[in-house]
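Dear colleagues,

For the upcoming journal club I promised to circulate an example of a predicted protein-ligand complex. I picked one with aspartic acid because it came up in last month's discussion. The inputs are reproduced below in full, followed by the predicted structure.
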Amino acid sequence: MKLPSLNMQILLGVVLGVGIGLGLATLGKASPVTQNTLYISGLVGTLFVDLLKMVLIPLVFASIAVGVANLRAHKQIHRVWVVTLGFFVLSMSIAIVLGLSAANIFEPGRGMQLSMFADATSAFQAKQLPVSDFFAQLLHNIFKNPLAALAQGDVLAVVVFSLILGIALVIGGERYKNILHLLQELLEITLMIVGWIMRLAPFGIMALLIKLAATQDAALLTTLAQFVAVVIGTTLIHGVIALPLILYLTTGVTPWRFWLGAREALITAFATSSSSATLPVTLRCVEQHLHVRRDIAGFVVPLGATCNMDGTALYEAAAALFVANLAGIDLSFGQQLVVFFTAMLGAIGAPGIPSAGMVTMIVVLQSVGLPVEAIAILLPIDRLLDTFRTAVNVEDDMIASMVVQKLTDA
Ligand code: ASP
């Protein structure tokens, strides 16, 4: 019997996962069926994410070093850098403006009773982290002993070291061709292992979605429904209209063609809520389905997975205004400008792991004097919101690589 294609299997996993999860939610937490199924989905989901994380560090390391080294053959190496960073900043700016506009128009949280969250709020111990400290910490985490960074799975430090190694390989040229060759083989063999892990994807994704759908707190969701709707709606506008439009205008690739090539990565991002864990799948989609060359993809995509997060930027901006509304504070235009910059900083600084954006959001809140404790209100709904924003974060990296390839191939 011939199995359906991997894409079909993944889509089936999504449908079954959400369906079974909602079914379990109606059965209730106490039912043994729910408990056993949640236990098994916990195991399978974690196994899938762990396998992806297993290949993450070798993949980031090899792909960036090789990506940068291969750029030397590219006639427009400087242009690649400039267009990549320019695209990251531009797309995050559009996302933040969308988030701020939606929050200004719909004013979620205005007039809401904060007291109902009093318990949650007082139970939350916010870590005090002023913007200046955040910045110092970010800088401090950039340069590390590469062996320690590799061993500890510190993605940001690995990204930076691989960038430097790549540049050294470019400058050293012929002299270090063996090291480059070795890294190229490391990259290829890691991608081969990613292909094996992807066979598990339909089950892993189904398991993650069962857990997500079964453990959502419906009561809280209805209370915060307006905010949830504004964030998800705006994130979708950015992901379904703004980004595909930019892609179409710059490369001529239609949204449908993009979706066909990108769906494995988008669905994995949605289910794992982690750009980093999804990175192996993202690279595979970009190179194999969307035909971005390895030199561009290997550079833009891993860099984007840690620094380019439209969904997170949009969320942090919208959430800051939501918290301001809850606290009955009106943020002036100037203060919203501060939110704009800190949201971008927060998105750049957030690692690609679940709920990372919640942590860096403390910086945004503090920058305009909003109560940091309000994060306690946002935490319980973050599992749901994180799915959409991570999918957009990953979509944005894929689109960035396609746009960069187009604009630098002259
Ligand atoms: N989960 C997001 C990601 O991995 C980061 C965030 O929490 O916003 O892209």
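Two points we might discuss: Residues 273-275, 309, 312, 350, 352-357, 386, 389-390, 393 surround aspartic acid (CB under 6 Å). The chain has a mean pLDDT of 88.

See you all on Thursday,
B. R.
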